[in-house]
Design goal:
The chain is of the alpha+beta class. It folds into 2 domains: 15-45; 53-179, Immunoglobulin-like. The chain has helices spanning 19-45, 59-73; strands at residues 53-56, 74-78, 83-86, 93-99, 102-104, 106-110, 115-121, 126-131, 135-139, 143-149, 155-161, 173-179. The strands form 2 sheets. A 7-stranded mixed beta sheet has the order 2-3-6-12-11-8-9. Strand 2 (74-78) and strand 3 (83-86) form a beta hairpin. The longest helix has 27 residues, at 19-45. It is elongated, with a radius of gyration of 24 Å. The structure holds dinuclear copper ion. Dinuclear copper ion is lined by residues 101, 126, 161, 163-165, 169, 172.
Length: 182
């Protein structure tokens, strides 16, 4: 039977299946099952999958919470844009705004401590990409991501936007500081 020419017998679906075709259907089905089971398996045992929660949030509320954290825990300013660097206490809620075209503020976290990271866009879709760890999260407007993070190694990490978000997308870069435990 050909896919291009009409079938010789009009009731083609009542013909017996070729054994080789059955073999391929079984192979594809088993492979599909394996791929399906890999999703929960990899979520639990893969190291790179994030277990995050998402909540609806408004930009106003998110900005207010972020501003409150900055007012309380700012330690310095960096870059020409005078981005505040914030060092919140271990275990606290930390906020990071994505907007055209910056990450605000910069966070300075302590190695080995756990933080609740809240992540949200104020305008449209951005991508949170932490390098060189290669942790990637889509950041949506109207939704806040909540992740528990525990930086394991001190150092300066780069945050870049990896969703195209307009003319200055390439300038949407920032840093995440992880400092050794005191
Ligand atoms: Cu924000 Cu690209």
């Amino acid at each position: 039977m050909s896919a291009i020419l009409p079938p010789e017998q009009r009731v083609w679906w009542k013909q017996p299946i070729e054994p080789i075709e059955i073999t391929w259907i079984v192979v594809a089905f088993i492979w599909g099952l394996i791929m399906f089971l890999m999703m929960p398996y990899w979520h639990v045992f893969g190291k790179q999958n994030l277990a995050n929660e998402a909540y609806r949030a408004t930009p106003e509320v998110f900005v207010a919470k972020t501003q409150a954290m900055v007012d309380k825990y700012q330690v310095r300013e960096e870059t020409d844009q005078k981005i505040p660097v914030v060092r919140p206490p271990a275990g606290s809620d930390v906020y990071l705004i994505a907007r055209l075209w910056q990450w605000w503020p910069m966070l300075e976290l302590e190695e080995g401590q756990s933080y609740k990271l809240h992540l949200m866009s104020l305008d449209w879709l951005h991508g949170f990409s932490l390098q060189p760890e290669n942790i990637n999260i889509q950041v949506h407007p109207g939704y806040m991501h909540l992740l528990t993070v525990q930086p394991s190694k001190a150092g300066t990490y780069a945050i870049i936007c990896n969703e195209y978000c307009g003319i200055n997308h390439h300038t949407m870069v920032s840093r995440l500081y992880v400092v050794p435990k005191k």
